[in-house]
Known about the structure:
Shape: rod-shaped
Distance between the termini: 81 Å
Number of strands: 0
Oligomer: single chain
Helix content: over 70%
Order of helices and strands: HHHH
Amino acid sequence: METKMTFNLEDEIKIDVNNLNEELIKQPSLIAYASSVYSTARRQHQQLKLDLEVYQAKLGTDIRRNPADYGIAKITESAITNGIKEDKMWEELSSRLLDAEQDVNVISGLLQALQHRKDSLFNLCSNLRAEAAGELRLKSIEQLKLEADENK
């Protein structure tokens, strides 16, 4: 059920400023892919959380029914909580839940970075348009001067 991330964060965020058209074309695909991975990671995290809650409830019930099996002489909420936390399977599920939460956080960060990437792409393209317009204006002014010099 676990999904391993198969992309390099740095490579996915990097922008090739010499190929902005290609970067603009691939941006939606990157966001779609990262969103899909995020959705899968969230689902796995939620499933592990549910699995842990169910296991914890069953274990708590078993501890209440058979306290001696867990080395508990007097049943108290504290003793039950400690018995649950000492269980190896509970520790394993808790560890897997933490790993799944980390995956969700990393992929969430990737989605945020891809949004910043999109904004950067738009700014770079806007800057190029402005530069191109400025160059055209300069050429027009230079052309006008040349024409004026020719007419003298």
